[in-house]
């Protein structure tokens, strides 16, 4: 995983690396087996075969056998393959391959609750709320609402609209909730954006009614 516009690190370490002279190796990285991302040709960096979008964006750390992909963007997501060939009696022979799957992460803004209601709230009248978060990636899983009254908290689901910016590919999300609230008991409402996997969840500032 790599954060948007940061450097992504793709490892290609292989066990015999310390015993092998880099001048006897051809090392190249491919994306989805079609685009050449980086190439080291018997000790020298070679740029002739590179896909244009990777020119001046990659560096190979030969001590750690790690490719650095600078300014990683959402279009860089995908599977990368590292192939190492050894010059064996003149004809190159593949001695190592490894694969990395790159995922890009962009942080969503803190969810923010908006009051979609004009005037004073009357008893047993429906209260309409929205909750919005923007500029994130990947697409979130869902949004839930936490409604707390006295010592009880209910978890509610509401509709969630998701839109993706055509240029940046980042997502904006808006959830909605329609609920009746008692006018003589304090009700606290929060919305929670669930990002899925190991990315966790984002909580809004609670709204007290």
UniProtKB/TrEMBL annotation:
Main location group:
membrane
Membrane-topology annotation of the record: Single-pass type I membrane protein
Q: What does the UniProt entry say about where the protein is found? A: Cell membrane
The UniProt entry, under InterPro entries, shows:
Ig-like_dom, Ig-like_dom_sf, Ig-like_fold, T-cell_Activation_Regulation
Tell me which GO cellular component terms the UniProt record holds: external side of plasma membrane
Annotated Ig-like domain residues = 1-98, 111-191
Superkingdom as given in the UniProt entry: Eukaryota
List residues traversing the bilayer. Answer: none
Q: Name a single GO biological process.
A: immune response
Membrane listed as a keyword: yes
Transferase as a keyword of this entry, yes or no, is no
Q: Which Gene3D superfamilies match?
A: Immunoglobulins
Keywords, comma-separated and alphabetical:
Cell membrane, Disulfide bond, Glycoprotein, Immunoglobulin domain, Membrane, Receptor, Signal, Transmembrane, Transmembrane helix
This protein is called CD86 protein
